[in-house]
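Attaching the record inline, Q. Sequence:
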Amino acid sequence: MQTLAVLISGNGSNLQSIIDTIGADRISVVISNNADAYGLIRARKHNIDTLVINHQLYNSRDQYDQALQECLQCYDPDFIVLAGFMRILGSDFVQQYENKILNIHPSLLPKYKGLNTYQRALDNNETEHGVSIHLVTAELDDGPILMQQRYKIEKGDTVEDLQEKGHKLEHRMYPKLILMLLSKDYRIVEHLGEFFLI
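Structure, as predicted:
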């Protein structure tokens, strides 16, 4: 049976949507860089192994990545799912798990890579925003897009409004994509030069 490792830093709402849709038995471990992440409590409620690897205890990104890799080797997951994991992974780590690391990002990539995507969209008077799921590469938020969905920005919307709309999409999209990958039940289509799984 194919399994996942899920990496988190905070609340773990996407983790919960994955558990609810796919089942806890497909998640071999949840790893956080933050010992206080509520997502760890969510995982423990479902008897999923949890680990904390505190980035502050390491002198460099490479050392942290090495510790993370050693832990992952014990579980040998088929996919590594970044679900609100607020760490940038180094190129050596990414190459080790090429085409196996998934990330969800709150924008219509390639627009608005990085942080504060909701505010930047509002500042630029965008009429729509969205969510992208992509494979992780060495470049930040630059890997191949696997799934993307959008929503309208209404007049008067705030950052909190966009965040709420985005989270609703995320909680549907991430489990759906992961199920497709685990079951190999998907086809690849091209749209405007981008390739998507459907």
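The longest helix spans residues 159-183. The domain at 4-197 is CATH 3.40.50.170 (Rossmann fold).

More tomorrow.
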